[in-house]
Amino acid sequence: MTGLIFLAVVVALAVLILAKTIVVIPQGEAAIVERLGRYTRTISGGISLLVPFIDRVRARIDTRERVVSFPPQAVITQDNLTVAIDTVVTFQINDPARAIYGVDNYIVGVEQISVATLRDVVGGMTLEETLTSREVINRRLRGELDAATTKWGLRISRVELKAIDPPPSIQQSMEMQMKADREKRAMILTAEGRRESDIRTAEGEKQAKILAAEGEKHAAILAAEAEREATILKAEGERAARYLAAQGEAKAIQKVNAAIKSVQVTPEVLAYQYLEKLPQLAQGEASTMWMIPSQFGDALEDFAKALGKRDEDGVFRYEPAQRDERSENIANADDHEDWFNTQSNPEIAAAVAAANAVANKPVDEEPLGTGAKKAISPEATAAIEQPDTTD
């Protein structure tokens, strides 16, 4: 029985010695080993052997990068306003021995140094600068903390201001100011948009009026040219009509005169024709009464004496002229083939066709200038200005 107890004590002692000798450190951690109360070495991830009952692990340190968020700190700005600032510090322990032996609690040390540095930095800024200068504050905080915690074996990798909360009254004032600024910008943008719209509208109206004026100008020029051409053609037609009427009247008179000479009309025939025409003269609506002057007989007597020949009994008798060959030829000539020819003059037809071509042509975009003939084709101008040879 005594042997069994001794064996159990030996096994328990062996297990205890083995437990004190072998130490397993996980990856991402470091352990501080002391020998008889004095620092000897730092061990990290893996299995390490210790001298049992002489070496011991003082502390285990997490060597991974850590993110610590500190509670809001009341900070007074340069313009005497109190703001609450939350900070987030990212750091990593590079030297576990310094973190254990250099400071009692490095988390509290980082918090206090960050608060002191934050108050120093923000105390020199106004509220507006504090709200708009986060990068400057973060950079200064990181520099101050990194310089202060280097002796503790820490490396400050990043410092961020998580929130900056001014007092409620200041927040309300800031919101009102921001609302006023937004309304101001909205009014400015609205005014700018309205101004731009008015400018564009005025430019469009200006362009429309310019184009309308150009169109009216072109239309007036074309209308003037058309009126000029119409007047010229009308004058040409009236001149040709009067000329043809005069020619026809001359031909008719010549024809009647030649016919009278060729048939040798006697006074008896003329008197008969005169009597036939009297009823026709009386058919007019205003021909209700005829007045014959008393000297009318004397005038006929003088006419008979001038044209007649006095015979042996003292009576003046009219003797027709002798027939001549020229009068008979004129009376018997039949040269009225082209009297009723309605075909237009080729030159006038060409001028009308050229004017129609110009009228159907679109108006040019460029101004025509002072010369109205720029809107007319050279063929129309040549056809209009060509001298008339119908005379």
Automatic annotation (TrEMBL):
<dbReference type="GO" id="GO:0098552">
    <property type="term" value="C:side of membrane"/>
</dbReference>
<keyword id="KW-0472">Membrane</keyword>
<dbReference type="InterPro" id="IPR036013">
    <property type="entry name" value="Band_7/SPFH_dom_sf"/>
</dbReference>
<dbReference type="GO" id="GO:0005886">
    <property type="term" value="C:plasma membrane"/>
</dbReference>
<dbReference type="InterPro" id="IPR001972">
    <property type="entry name" value="Stomatin_HflK_fam"/>
</dbReference>
<dbReference type="InterPro" id="IPR018080">
    <property type="entry name" value="Band_7/stomatin-like_CS"/>
</dbReference>
<feature type="domain" description="Band 7">
    <location>
        <begin position="20"/>
        <end position="178"/>
    </location>
</feature>
<protein>
    <submittedName>
        <fullName>Modulator of FtsH protease HflK</fullName>
    </submittedName>
</protein>
<dbReference type="InterPro" id="IPR001107">
    <property type="entry name" value="Band_7"/>
</dbReference>
<keyword id="KW-1133">Transmembrane helix</keyword>
<feature type="region of interest" description="Disordered">
    <location>
        <begin position="361"/>
        <end position="391"/>
    </location>
</feature>
<dbReference type="Pfam" id="PF01145">
    <property type="entry name" value="Band_7"/>
</dbReference>
<keyword id="KW-0645">Protease</keyword>
<dbReference type="InterPro" id="IPR050710">
    <property type="entry name" value="Band7/mec-2_domain"/>
</dbReference>
<dbReference type="GO" id="GO:0008233">
    <property type="term" value="F:peptidase activity"/>
</dbReference>
<keyword id="KW-0378">Hydrolase</keyword>
<dbReference type="GO" id="GO:0006508">
    <property type="term" value="P:proteolysis"/>
</dbReference>
<keyword id="KW-0812">Transmembrane</keyword>
<comment type="similarity">
    <text>Belongs to the band 7/mec-2 family.</text>
</comment>
